[in-house]
Amino acid sequence: MLDAAQCRPGADIPPQGVLCIWLPWGQVGTEDGGYNEEFLAAFRDFLKELEEQGRYAFIVPDGGSGGFPDGGLLAASMKHCARRIKDCASVIGFAVPPAGDASYFMEQLREKHAHYIFFSRDESLLADGGIVRY
Fold first, then answer.
1. Which bin fits 60, alpha (ψ -120 to 50), beta or left (φ > 0)?
2. Its pTM surpasses 0.85
3. Which letter does DSSP use for residue 130 in this model?
4. Which residues contact 110 (CB under 8 A, 6 or more apart)?
């Protein structure tokens, strides 16, 4: 697993397998406080490098030290991230956060990103059939 802060162009990455990238929601930013476009641009460049290497990744929203915000704020933050990386074929999807309304989170990301696969460790969500264990 990689921390999103390590995901900069030219970064050393594990040589094989699908990457699981932990992304603290606060790293993306919030609508009220503004989004961290500088981080998102560098993150996109990193994901484009993965694409050039024929590699794939999925993103795991992380609550960070403050925990997860309410479901709407978390979904908005990850949706904004998804908009900024929408052209990165290396991104296969997002993990469903352990906190909040999973259906709402997936609905928000699927609005413009129906191709994403969703991942979870929560057995009750796995019964959905559209979610894969990680």
1. beta
2. yes
3. S
4. 116
Residue with tokens 């933050």: 77
Query: What letter does residue 78 receive in the DSSP assignment?
Result: H
| CA distances in angstroms from 112 to 7, 51, 69, 92, listed in the order given | 24, 20, 23, 14
- Cβ atoms of residues 108 and 93 within 8 Å: no
The pLDDT of residue 98 is above 70: yes
| Residue 94: predicted pLDDT | 95
- Tell me: pLDDT of 56 over 90: yes
Q: What is the CA radius of gyration of the chain?
A: 14
CA atoms within 13 A on the CB side of 48: 11
Tens digit of pLDDT for each residue in 23-35? 988 888 876 768 9
